[in-house]
């Protein structure tokens, strides 16, 4: 217990030394103008710089007396930490409104340019001979309304589309998403036929798609 006061004194001294490492001795002369940090009128918890106000008297090393704001004839004493020296604005130039503004033309360098034209010669297979290349160009020029660089719509080509509806001309379209892996469809069908005691008489494809299309039914057991 005897070492507690000495330890407290040492800790206090080290803490003060740490806080005073960047401290600067500040002072204001009588007659100076300074800003003061005071609570705002809108919110008492919000402080803002107000002023500037004239310093009237130095009370002690850290407190000063200045005229109360808004010229109400009262005086207040504040700590130096609440002050900030007011810097008078210098070199203030009046702004003149100019109505007539003229701009000089800025010369620019002119370079010879060449207009780019679209190449009318189509790209062909480089392995073609000169004769084949010439014949191909002639065909394209003859049927220029058919051959175009822009994709469009034509009725010159037709192709069948398989749908999910079974018709006499086409087989039904099978969805690629399967519950059973493709490689197991045939073995599973054979196993079902073996268990039922019947021979397999359906094509080696998905049982689900075949049953949906009505192309196959299980043989009735006699």
Q: What fraction, in percent, of the residue positions are helical?
A: 10-25%
Number of strands: 5
- The tally of helices reads 4
Strands across the major sheet, in which order?
A: 4-3-2-1-5
Determine Rg (CA atoms, Å).
Answer: 49 Å
Unreliable runs: 210-218
Q: What's the order of the H and E elements?
A: HEEEEEHHH
What distance separates the N and C termini?
Answer: 108 Å
Approximate shape: elongated
The portion of residues forming beta strands comes to 5-15%
Structural class: alpha+beta
What this model shows, in words?
- The chain is an alpha+beta fold and 222 residues long.
- Helices cover 22% and strands 14% of the residues.
- The chain has helices spanning 4-19, 130-142, 185-196, 207-213, and strands at 33-39, 47-58, 63-67, 75-79, 83-85.
- Strands 4-3-2-1-5 form a five-stranded antiparallel sheet, with no helix packed on it.
- It is elongated.
- The protein starts with a helix and ends in a 9-residue tail after the last helix.
- The model is unreliable at 210-218 (pLDDT under 50).
- This is Reverse transcriptase RNase H-like domain-containing protein.
- Residues 197-222 are annotated as: Disordered.
List the helices and strands and how they pair.
Elements: H1 4-19, E1 33-39, E2 47-58, E3 63-67, E4 75-79, E5 83-85, H2 130-142, H3 185-196, H4 207-213
Antiparallel strand pairs: 1-2, 1-5, 2-3, 3-4
Features:
222 residues
Short note summarizing the structure:
It is built from four helices and five strands. The chain is of the alpha+beta class and 222 residues long.
